[in-house]
Amino acid sequence: MNERSTKGSLAVIFLTVFIDLLGFGMVLPLLPIYADHFIEDETGVWLGLLMASFSVMQLIFSPFWGRLSDRIGRRPVLMIGLAGSVAFYTLFGVATILQSYWLLLASRIGAGIAGATISTAQAYIADSTSLAERPRGMALIGMAFGLGFTFGPLFGFLAVPYEGAPPGPWPGYAAAILSAFALGMAAFLLPESLQPGRNGAFRELIDRAGFRRAIATPSIGVLLLAIFVCVFSFANFETTLSLLIKGDQESSSPFTFSWGQVCLTYAYIGLTLALVQGGLVRRLAKRASEGSLSVAGGGIQLLGFVLMIAAVAQGSARLLIGALAVVVTGFAFMQPMLNSLLSRRTDPHQQGAVLGVGQSVNALARIAGSGLGIPLLRIGLQTPYYTAAGMMALGVVLVLIAVRGGKDFPQEP
């Protein structure tokens, strides 16, 4: 690929991941409003289903898209995902006009399927970069992740014109327009990255044998477990945050953020993630190994969770905002470096499949973290963050074991 096509390709990959996380970040702060306006849900079951549906589809379809891209190429799979995003984000907007919970659920399921191509985007980066450049490439995906999580809550904020109003359709329409723009860029600027002769065999939707082969590779199984534990820890934090800071009579939270402040808090988290990954992590990736940066990120997150526990105990909003920056900075170091390590340890012929398994593990961790976090919050306001700190300590140990227990896969000349 020449320099111009490479820049165009990276722009499309960036937009693909950005749109995926835009949808996730857009819905997260809106969920309490959906529960109030769209359906009677005293137990929280339907709200939980709406939240989990996106991640469940990513759990199932990330390996599917990854293996399909190993077979037919990265470009067609990415374009299919972007076309699906156009359709399902449009449906999201229609669902809010009709105030239909079931159409909203269908749109989230579809968006989860379409957005599961993030593993294919990672495989594209792996195809197009050397081992030395791969950490910086994965950090670019992390920056898109952070910006998606920044603008998603801002779109959600624009959906509600005033406190207590039902959400409007424009977040869904805006995400659909961005998806259509990215699809057009893919059509004209995205060359195929999969080299001829490297096509893998495509099997059933759930490739159990492929998963067994992946974890049989030295350190891959431990790396996948480390990814699960670390993402579970972060999901435990991010899914309880809106309930913690919004505050109500049932939760006895010391914080009483307004609806706008909740959205802006999530945008602040995403912006911090994007700035750290796009600036600091990409620079440090030239000088330090993935293992060192991952372990450092885990230690920073541990400190952040301790500060969060202190902020809740003191009822200090300022300390809480500082703690959020520390937690997110640690996550910004850890996530792309673990993905880069996973790619380095993987056979180039199976990049899509193994990175797809990694995204499924990521989605499973988000489902588990979301499901456990809210009940823990009901037990005690600090309980989710004690749990997150303990899980992160375990994650750091697992990363150390994985780094010392494996080696890079031999690269083709």
Number of E-type strands: 0
Largest sheet: none
Oligomer category = single chain
Looking at the structure, the CATH topology is Growth Hormone, Chain: A
Strand content: under 5%
Write the layout of secondary structure elements.
Elements (H helix, E strand, L loop, with lengths): L2 H25 L3 H8 L6 H28 L1 H25 L2 H15 L2 H11 L5 H26 L10 H20 L18 H9 L3 H27 L12 H26 L5 H25 L2 H28 L6 H29 L3 H22 L9
Helix pairs in contact: 1-4, 1-5, 1-6, 1-7, 1-8, 2-3, 3-4, 3-5, 3-6, 3-14, 4-5, 4-8, 6-7, 6-14, 7-11, 7-13, 10-13, 10-14, 10-15, 11-13, 12-13, 12-15
Provide an overview of this structure.
The protein has helices at residues 3-27, 31-38, 45-72, 74-98, 101-115, 118-128, 134-159, 170-189, 208-216, 220-246, 259-284, 290-314, 317-344, 351-379, 383-404. It is mostly helical and 413 residues long. It has a single domain, classed as MFS general substrate transporter like domains (Growth Hormone, Chain: A).
Q: TL;DR?
A:
The protein has 413 residues and is mainly alpha-helical. It has helices spanning 3-27, 31-38, 45-72, 74-98, 101-115, 118-128, 134-159, 170-189, 208-216, 220-246, 259-284, 290-314, 317-344, 351-379, 383-404.
State the main characteristics.
15 helices, Growth Hormone, Chain: A
